[in-house]
From TrEMBL:
Its main location: cytoplasm. It is an enzyme of class 6 (ligase). Catalyzes the attachment of proline to tRNA(Pro) in a two-step reaction: proline is first activated by ATP to form Pro-AMP and then transferred to the acceptor end of tRNA(Pro). As ProRS can inadvertently accommodate and process non-cognate amino acids such as alanine and cysteine, to avoid such errors it has two additional distinct editing activities against alanine. One activity is designated as 'pretransfer' editing and involves the tRNA(Pro)-independent hydrolysis of activated Ala-AMP. PROSITE patterns: AA_TRNA_LIGASE_II. This is Proline--tRNA ligase. The lineage of its organism: Bacteria, Bacillati, Bacillota, Bacilli, Bacillales. Residues 33-465 form the Aminoacyl-transfer RNA synthetases class-II family profile domain. It is found in: Cytoplasm. Its EC number is 6.1.1.15. Homodimer. The keyword Cytoplasm applies. GO terms for molecular function: proline-tRNA ligase activity. It comes from Halobacillus kuroshimensis. It comes from the Bacteria.
Length: 567
């Protein structure tokens, strides 16, 4: 491809709205352009990279027997209402009405669509197991699109769905898919972890996220410092054992605490550590109000709270509901004297406490010397808090450390969540109807591209891994006005193309500094420069990632490039 004929608009400075490396570099190098908040066009050079990531995903899917298909992006609401997700998925689902006022959603995911299709077409156990996938744009109305391709409102995704006759068969498919995902991210050269995760609005129970380690990641990974254990922080169980305090309980006392609303302000007022106070937060769990209580130095994990109640939706109670039910605002809540229609649950650490402070459910007042079961009742004690660094690893090996990660893939064991609600059944070998067992598996293709850039860059630009770079070679003619340089560069271009090598040929009439800067920005793994030694048939070869360079005869270049990519 001649660069003079290709649409690659580059920028010298970082865009004002780009906060992370991948966003900055992909825009500056002419890979993408923003059309609206969270919505991007992939320009020609960006499209080449996207297709290479896509093809790696496609190859690994086909290796495990998944078959590619295409489903509509426009989904009727009736299907989502069958599973209940029309009301539970939330505001991220982009909804619209057609001219007949029929409700639709732009596809955020396709469990309902594929289940509807399969329930009509698959009737016998002989047709199972079945795994299909598609690579298609998805739509989610993100409240705060940010970080370029990492959190957009339209994005390219590979989504796959499996249908099995048993949970044992699902386990086998899940393991194949898990390995295929590991292969994809390994082939892309990514430093990643597969972590235990929450299924969220997808349904199902067993699930793993594939996280690319990066400081700009929005997810926190809890991992053992001595074993392979890793989990999303919201899913890591706390296994710490709490010994009951030997301190004798004393009488509880209400104290005026003007201006004290945070745990730290309360601790400072009473002169104790954070762990000597109770934190109480009112949640609405489906239609039930729940007061969740933790130690002052701990944080309520709403995913664990949701799982405790097997709930569909968990959200913080509104200020109005909190005042109406509890008689006080957020900073003065506590477990003493809670109305009967509010369930009180507490983290396991609370049960061991004696003589602690807590909100008095009256603005500007707190209790001191409150003790569980003496001064207030807890309906259930459970693991309700986020794990912390230094806690024991749940697998019993080492202690927990934190790292940040970018989620690029997610695999779910859905079980019967969709098939039961949508009556997707098959006849077993005895001729009896059984419910299909499902799995769902997604890779954010465009997000993965951005994650690659987050791990492969330097202060001059992108440093693409070899198998996803837009071209294999960047051929530069330093001065096309000089006949010997132009002639040799043209010859090399033709030879490389004939050898099946992908070449971007910078034949522009630009200064050498501009060409070198653009080349570094693009990040193509190998650069071949035709310059002053063109008359002798000598060119310079430079590796983008290492900076290593050498001079070679032009006649050696095609073989050198082939061997370099084989190594």
């Amino acid at each position: 491809m001649r660069q003079s004929h290709m649409f690659i608009p580059t920028l010298k400075e970082n865009p004002a709205d780009a906060d992370i490396k991948s966003h900055q570099l992909l825009v500056r190098a002419g890979y993408i352009r923003q059309i609206a908040s969270g919505i991007y066009s992939f320009l020609p050079i960006g499209q080449r990279v996207l297709r290479k990531v896509e093809n790696i995903v496609r190859e690994e899917m086909e290796k495990i027997g998944a078959h590619e298909m295409a489903m509509p992006a426009l989904e009727p609401s009736e299907l989502w209402k069958e599973t209940g997700r029309w009301s539970t998925f939330g505001s991220e689902l982009m909804r619209l009405n057609d001219r007949h006022n029929r409700e639709f959603a732009l596809g955020a995911t396709h469990e309902e669509v594929i289940t509807s299709l399969v329930r009509h077409e698959v009737k016998s156990y002989k047709q199972l197991p079945l795994t299909v996938f598609q690579i298609q744009n998805k739509f989610r109305d993100e409240a705060r699109p940010r970080f370029g391709l990492l959190r957009g409102r339209e994005f390219l995704m590979k989504d796959a769905y499996s249908f099995n006759e048993s949970y044992e068969s699902l386990d086998e498919t899940y393991e194949k898919m898990f390995q295929a995902y590991s292969n994809v991210f390994s082939r892309l050269g990514l430093n990643f972890r597969a972590v235990i995760a929450d299924s969220g609005a997808m349904g199902g129970k067993d699930t793993h996220e594939f996280m690319v380690l990066s400081e700009v990641g929005e997810d926190v990974i809890a991992y053992s410092d001595t074993s392979r254990y890793a989990a999303n922080i919201e899913m890591a169980p706390v296994t710490a054992v709490y010994e009951k305090s030997a301190e004798a309980p004393i009488d509880m006392e209400k104290v005026e605490t003007p201006g004290c609303k945070t745990m730290q302000e309360v601790a400072d007022f009473f002169g104790h550590q954070l762990e000597e106070g109770l934190k109480a937060i009112l949640f609405k769990v489906d239609e039930q109000f729940v007061l969740a209580v933790t130690r002052g130095d701990h944080e309520v994990n709403d995913v664990k709270l949701k799982n405790l109640y097997d709930a569909g939706v968990v959200e913080l109670a509104s200020a109005e509901d909190t005042k109406r039910l509890m008689g006080a605002g957020f900073g003065s809540l506590g477990p003493v004297g809670v109305p009967e229609d509010v369930d009180v649950v507490a983290d396991a650490a609370v049960e061991a406490l004696v003589n602690v402070t807590c909100g008095a459910n009256e603005d500007g007042y707190h209790y001191k010397n409150a003790t569980p079961e003496k001064d207030f009742h807890v309906s259930r004690y459970a693991d309700l808090r986020f794990i912390q660094e230094g806690d024991p690893s749940p697998d019993g090996e080492g202690v927990i450390q934190f790292a940040r990660g970018i989620e690029v893939g997610h695999v779910f064991k859905l079980g019967e969540f969709y098939s039961q609600r949508m009556n997707a059944t098959f006849l077993n070998d005895q001729g009896k109807a059984e419910t299909m067992i499902m799995g769902s598996y997604g890779i954010g293709v465009s997000r993965t591209l951005a994650a690659v850039v987050e791990q492969y860059n330097d202060d001059r630009g992108i440093t693409w891994p070899a198998n996803v770079a837009p071209f294999q070679v960047h051929l530069l003619s330093m001065n096309p006005k000089k006949e010997e340089q132009k002639e040799l560069a043209d010859q090399l271009y033709d030879q490389l193309l004939e050898s099946g090598i992908e070449v971007l040929y910078d034949d522009r009439k630009e200064r050498a500094g501009v060409k070198f800067a653009d080349s570094d920005l693009f990040g193509i793994p190998v650069r071949v420069t035709v310059g002053k030694q063109a008359g002798e048939g000598i060119v310079e070869v430079k590796e983008r990632a290492t900076g290593e360079q050498k001079e070679l005869s032009a006649s050696e270049i095609a073989d050198y490039i082939k061997n370099w990519y084989k190594a």
